[in-house]
Structure of Beta-amyrin 11-oxidase-like isoform X1:
Amino acid sequence: MLAMEVKNWLVLIVAAFVFVLGILKRLNGWYYAAKLGKTWPKLPPGHMGWPLLGSTILFLKSFSSGQPRNFIRSFYIRYGKCDMYKTHILGRATIIVCTSELCRQVLGDEHNFKPSFPVSINRLTGRKSLIQVFKAEHKRLRRLTTAPISGHAALKMYINGIEHTVMSGLEEWASMKNPIELLSEMKKLTFKIIWNIFMGSSLEYSIDEMVVLFSQVAIGFISLPINSPGFNFHQSLKARKKLLNILQSIINQKRLAKNMQGKSWEAKDMMDLLMDVKDEDGEELDDETIIDLIFGNLFAGHETSSITAMWAVLFLTKHPHVFQRAKEEQEHIVTQRPTTQKGITISNIKQMKFLYQVIDETLRASGVTFMVFREALADVEINGKIIPKGWKVIPWFGELFTDEKYFPSPQEFNPSRWDNYVATPGVFIPFGSGSRHCPGSDLAKFEVSIFLHYFLLNYKVELLNPNCKLTCLPFPHPKDKGLARVYKVE
């Protein structure tokens, strides 16, 4: 009798627990349904998840496990394949758009959509960074920061410095007795390049220390914005504060030099140029704006390039036939140039057709750029569905890059797919589009192509864990960061 009563009580407890969980999982949906009223039924399919957390735990788990597509596939399974879904992630009600047409529409419509990143990214990049400023202010600051890094003349000016850094780095890697982490070493190499371009050749601070600090900032980008010890976001804020102090001290030194030299002072790098800029009223940029712009350029300028270069090495190493074809192209370019020529030129780089296909295929297959963030400035109706004002909107590039409709056999690394490729607008935009297209995209590809040129000609890699599992926080990479030995070849 007692056993039967205990069993009944356990059944009641389990039933009550399941009931309470069911209620909790619906609270977020009920809240937004009540808030939006008649608009709610017009939203895309989806669910709002748990109170406060929404679907964030599943979102972070999918990225942490190296399977970000599992998150969106959970919606496919539950609601069928649609062009957009509603949910609640990283603290905000969100619409995820999944087709090239919608991605292009959202990214190109600055009247109805503005850049609006999660709290974690906003806090870590600064309110004056290019990803946060909007419309006229964005155009002005973009113009100021784009001039030194784009165009034929600017790229030509950087070739020798990039070559020297790449050749020295590869030589050093091959001389190391112990295996290296390709990603960590690539970050150091690309950081040296981008620092020289934006800040000048003098670097009083340790490269290793600076790269570690930037990596700590990156970890907090896609995280719960909880500023307490033990959370990634807290560690990232501490790293950002240290970096801001370093940049502020450099500004102070430069301002002192500028005041002492007077009219003879001359701008030599991007920070100098930003210090010298005046607006329509003759006012100079304040330190916060200069620091946020430089911080953003230093971060984006080395992070994306290093991850792309690492993935290119991994893919080339795992596909010997692609490696050989790319190597033969580089050898041909070398044999065709004048014997008096030292190093490569922009003209040589323009001949690297297959290598650029390798880079594009790397950007597609690695999923380096998986999504971006926008916010609806008004209720927007698309395809009969409403995107409510104030909701986050995420163009989900990851699904486009693996869509068999556009990329047959998408899981295969195949640079030849880009032969005579006819682009569908909005399908392959790893650097964004429209006015928000990354201003440093040409420089990034330029860096990666020079690195791969010298790597293919003179080096090879032995991966210690070729089947290592992945993580996508903050960007896709093997969990061992590409542990490998680098060898110099004849």
Q: What stands out?
A: The mean pLDDT is 86. Residues 39-488 form a domain with the Cytochrome p450 fold (CATH 1.10.630.10). Residues 187 and 194 are 10 Å apart (CA to CA). The two ends are 85 Å apart (CA to CA).
